[in-house]
Amino acid sequence: MTVRNSAPVQIFPGKGLGFITLGASLHNILTRVKSHPHVYPAIDLSYSSTEPLCKPVVLQLPSNGLRLRFDGPDQRLRLIEVLDFSRVNLVYKSQDVLKNGKTDELATSPQGPSFRHVYNRLFGPSYPGEYVPPSDRSSYGTYVLSYPGVAFSFPLQHSAWSDQCDFVALLSSSAALPATSMSIFQGSSWPEIRMKLFTQPPQGPRFSAVAGKSRDSFADEIEEIHILGAGKLEVIRRASPPLLINLGETTPQDLIAGFGPPDAIYRKHDRRISIHRATGASGGDPLHMSPPPGRAMDIPDTDHSSSNSVTDDSDEETFPSNIGDPTSLPTECFFNYFHHGFDAFISYPTTAGPAFPNSGISDPTPPLSTSQLTVTKLILHGNVPGSYPFNRHRRSRWMIHLDQSGDGLTSETPYDEISGRLRDVWKGYYSNQSEERSTQRPMVLNRGWGDSPESSVEFLGGWEETTARGPRAGPDGQDGGLGNTELFGFPGLLFEVLKNGAVSCLTVY
User: Fold this and answer.
1) Separation of alpha carbons 77 and 79, rounded Å
2) d(CA 370, CA 483)
3) 98 pLDDT exceeds 50?
4) CA torsion 83→88→93→95, rounded to 10°?
5) Is residue 309 scored above 60 in pLDDT?
6) Confidence at residue 324, expressed as pLDDT on a 0 to 100 scale
7) Residue ranges of region Disordered (predicted)?
8) Beta strands in 394-508, from DSSP E residues, in sequence order
9) Which of 70, 189, 353, 420 has its CA 20 to 30 A from that of 329?
10) pLDDT, tens only, 192-217
11) Could you give the strand order of the β-sheet that contains 222-229, starting from the edge strand earlier in sequence?
């Protein structure tokens, strides 16, 4: 016997179902669902292992009869589907969609709401819907009855269907069965929206908690981050003007003013990569990450961000209470913005990476000696399904502007293409081909070993002996459970790349 959740869930056509709102990020929805295991005991996530950033991500809640579809590039909720009406107590304007045990013909049946109940008591008259003939030998096709923002699917005997029939009389007859599913979407009707469901701009916010609330109460959400070079980043926001971040100049107070207080402050010291910094500084070892001439090697602290939890070499995450006071900040810490999709490394000013050769931007000047803490690195998280730190942050989208044409590389561009373009851009930057090859060999990074599931990273085997990447994964796109990725460096940029070629994380320094 199916047991339904007794708590009523309100239907909001074109907007959402209960707290699940259209336009919300995958990170936001999945985090909230996982926080209530007694309500959502089973969670299934489906995605393309080869193209996780291009194809939709599907979150199924089988115990609740729900299926949620997110677009791949932005990971925002586009479609809510109810597949089993008996597993969720749906309500629309105080009217039950399905009353348990009631079989009255005008109300509902155990399988789902009848057409008469939907038409007479819930949503009222509608324009004719769309009939979909059976694709197999089934005797039933599907009639989709659509209202603005919501649609129901009714099985209909194919032999009874006719373009000339009155659809109200047809669906009220014995030839039609109760609804088998319901969809909530953004649009005037299902036929009008289905072809652009995953491409039209969502109207709702990524963070469902701010839906229907004043914008003044929350920091404006980030749409995209434009990487201009020379340590300059332009942050495109949903409703506010763009915000410029200058590495080595932007202060923690500037971040708080633009993005609100961080979700956490994190300080970590991992001595295991200090050997790479020391060796690179000698100038005789190829482990440096393509620094400007004369600069010592400095691996941009990817292992210090919030994609890792506490270890013996770490200070615990501390949630901010008095961040407005700069004296309360630990030296060299991270501001973790999980809901914005990035971490900012707070340290004493350093010289940012060089400008792109054809960008029209001047190279940065060395900073003056100062005790003022600034943002020196920005870590942009891809939240790629299948990656080890998946769902620690919501997805951060970015674009690298290589020149003044407006064309660039995006967070969805496969790394093979990114690497090819950047090699061309920096072709004249290296003194010889040997230096170019030595600075672009990947370092293998493992996030899967340690005492806890989110332990600090391990470097495996140093740099590979060849720049040829070759096959990066098996047929399922997995790496055997180690959580291995590879780090590839270019001036001012460090890419963490999965075996399927997706960029899991980009550090700008």
Assistant:
1) 6
2) 39
3) yes
4) 100
5) no
6) 52
7) 277-325, 437-456
8) 398-401, 408-410, 443-446, 458-463, 484-490, 493-497, 503-508
9) 353
10) 999 999 999 998 888 876 555 555 55
11) 243-246, 232-237, 222-229, 398-401, 408-410
The tokens for 140 are: 């039933």
Quickly state the pLDDT bin for 477 (edges 50, 70, 90). Answer: very low
Helices (H), 15-161: 26-34, 115-117
The per-residue pLDDT for 448 is: 55
- The larger pLDDT score, comparing residue 439 to residue 382, is at 382
- Residue 175 identity: A
pLDDT at 451: 37
pLDDT at residue 235 tops 80: yes
Radius of gyration of the chain, Cα coordinates, nearest whole angstrom: 27
User: 482 falls in which pLDDT band (50, 70, 90)?
Assistant: very low
Question: Which residues pair with residue 401 across a beta bridge?
Answer: 408
What is the DSSP secondary structure assignment for residue 122, as one 8-state letter? Answer: I
Q: Closest Cα to residue 353, out of 227, 496, 229?
A: 229
Contacts of 99 (CB under 8 A, 6+ apart): 107, 108
Give the per-residue pLDDT at 406: 76
Query: Between the CA of residue 313 and those of 185, 191, 445, what are the distances in Å?
Result: 47, 56, 18
Residue 482 backbone zone (phi > 0: left; psi -120 to 50: alpha; other: beta) = alpha
Q: Report the amino acid identity of residue 472.
A: R
| Phi, psi values for residue 151, rounded to 5° | -145, 150
Task: Describe the strand order of the beta sheet including 20-21 as a list of residue ranges.
Answer: 20-21, 16-17, 5-12, 88-92, 95-96
Phi, psi of 181 (to 5 degrees): -160, 160
Coil vs helix vs strand at 239: coil
- Which of 3-12, 105-114, 450-459 has the highest mean predicted lDDT (pLDDT)? 3-12
pLDDT of the residue at 471: 35
Note every long-range contact of 232-235, with CB atoms under 8 Å and residues 24 or more positions apart, other chains counting. Answer: 232/352, 232/361, 233/378, 233/508
Tally of CB atoms within 10 A around 165: 15
Instruction: Give 361-393 pLDDT, tens digit per residue.
Output: 999 988 887 788 999 999 999 999 999 899 999
Sheet holding 443-446, edge to edge: 264-266, 333-337, 342-347, 374-381, 503-508, 493-497, 484-490, 443-446, 458-463
Please give the sequence-ordered ranges of beta strands (E in DSSP) within 26-128, or none if there are none.
44-46, 57-61, 66-70, 77-82, 88-92, 95-96, 108-109, 112-113
> Which H/E stretch holds residue 193?
helix 190-193
Q: Which distant-in-sequence residues (6+ apart) come within 8 Å of 248 by Cβ?
A: 231, 349, 350, 351, 352, 364, 367, 374, 375, 376
The 10 Å Cβ neighbour count of residue 427 is: 10
Task: Dig out the tokens for 169 from the structure.
Answer: 């009389």
Collapsing DSSP to helix, strand or coil, 175 comes out as: coil
Q: In this structure, is the dihedral angle defined by the CA atoms of residues 415, 420, 425 and 427, taken in order, positive or negative? A: positive
